Every structure is written in structure tokens, then in C-alpha cells.
Amino acid sequence: MIVAGDVVLIDRSAAHRSTRSESLVWAIEAVSETSWRADVEIPRSHWLCHPTPDRVPVTLLAEAFRQAGMAICVAGLGMGQSVHFVVSSMTVRVVPESLRFPRFGALEGTLDVRFAGVKHRKGIPHVLEVEYELPGIASGRVDARVLVDRDYRAIRRNAAALDDEVRAFGGELIEPIAREADHVTARLGVDESDPFFFDHPVDHLPGMLLLHSAAVVHEREHGAPPRFLTVAFPAFGELRAETVVEAAISTHGVDTEFTQDGRLIATATTDARTGAWPETKEPGPTASKISIADGPGADPGRSDQHPVPGP
């Protein structure tokens, strides 16, 4: 347990469980019982930065938030690496109209992290509401559940895990099927060889892949990345199941739904406006699914619910 005033260079596996080179967080500091700081570094060499390596992808901001929350829980609060952080919803707001990397090097900053709400079950943190701010750059929020491995395995007991047969995909991430006025229907192209979204064994469609897909849809329709993105995960997305993308295009943003065989697995809202932010849509009563480390929080005993993108 880290106390206020301690600055700790973390074992990077606390922020990223399988690939330390993908870690965006390198130190954390306790400010108070509920407030922390995390030193983050987003490299311009990351493949998500291409083909425009001077622009900071909103997906990597979301990843920095996710990793900081996990590092604080694992290394700062002593929850350990055997728990599963299942994200219900994630929101990112970008301050500059166009967020760019420095001329040389990475985007570096100190992320302020506040645990706005913590609910316990049997004396153990179970529901987390975490707010983030990278001053002058971005802010956001993550709502997540903390599940012990036993409960997570019970939820996902019927899930098919990723195997040794890697299914690469040479097509587009978003493959349009039909368009009618301001409504687009598409298929999600999943590349299991992707080094970012599939960097560790998973038993679900990574939530970060769905978040990134929503950002891609917005940029295709509006010509620039979103400055506001919120995503909720009502159910687990299954691996190797066809995922249909339904996007309703508006003047400033996009409302997107992801379904598998008619089952809703994620919703997202994006916006390009520089003024007042749109209201964050709260997930529905059954929503509780994108794992900070692996996937969604659901009721133990059910296998149809979904965790978010894990490291």
C-alpha cells in the first residue's frame, strides 16, 4: 500500500500485464486517500499514430487512463494482479481542437486520478468510479467492477478463448455494407494478429477495439478525430462472431451500436464540438462490461456479459 507523498516507479506489469514495452504509465504517487498522480508517456512511434504520426489518437488517451487506473489499483492499493477490472463505461474528452505530439519525442504529462466513488462487497472494493485529468490535454472517466478470478471465470465459463490459430484479416476495420441517408451499416473487421488489441490471451472481443472502432467511424464521417467519446458495454462480445456496426450520423457526431446476432454488445457516442460537451449517456441497467485488464462486470453465473479491453 502506497501512502500520500510516496512516489513509486512501478513494475510496468502493474499497468500492462503481458507486454511491458506497451506500458504508458511509469510512476504513480498517492496524493490523498482518493487522489493520485500518474506519470504517463504516449510514444509517437506507436502504430496507432500512423499514418499521421504527429497526431495523438484518442484511443491512446483512453489506454493511458485505463493503464493508470490499473497501475494504481494493483501497485498502489495492493489489489494484486489476479483480479479482473471490468469496465462498464469509459469517456474521453480532448481539450485542444487538434491534439498533436511535440516535434520530437513522446507526449508526456502527469495524470490526475481521482476515485470519485468506491463501493465495497465483503470489505473488498467491487465498483469503481474513477475520474482522470491530463491538464490542458484531456479528461475522462471510467466506471468499472472488480472481480476475483473465480467470479470472472464463472461469468465466462462457456466462452471460447483465443487459440493458437491466429486469424489475420487483410480488410478494413469498418467494412460498409449499406448506407441510407445518415445511417451506415457495416461489418467489423477483426485482425487477431494485431499487436495492440490482441497482445494477451482473451476470451472476448476486446473492448478497446470497439472504442477505437467508434473513433474510426467518427473520423471517416467528419474528417477529424472526435473530441468527445463515450462508450458503454452491456454484454461481452464473443470472439469470431460476426459483429455488425450501426452508425447514426449527426451534424457533429455519431451514435454507434455494435451487435452480434442481434445482441447489443456496445454503444458509443462521439462528438467534434469545441463548446459544451454532450451529456454522457449512462449504460442501461444490464450494462457492466469492459475490462480494464480483461473484460465486463456482470452477475456471476452469466456468460453473456462483456469485459473491456485489457492490457
From TrEMBL:
It holds the Pfam family AfsA. InterPro entries: AfsA_hotdog_dom. Residues 16-93, 176-272 form the A-factor biosynthesis hotdog domain. It comes from the Bacteria. Residues 269-311 are annotated as: Disordered. This is A-factor biosynthesis hotdog domain-containing protein.
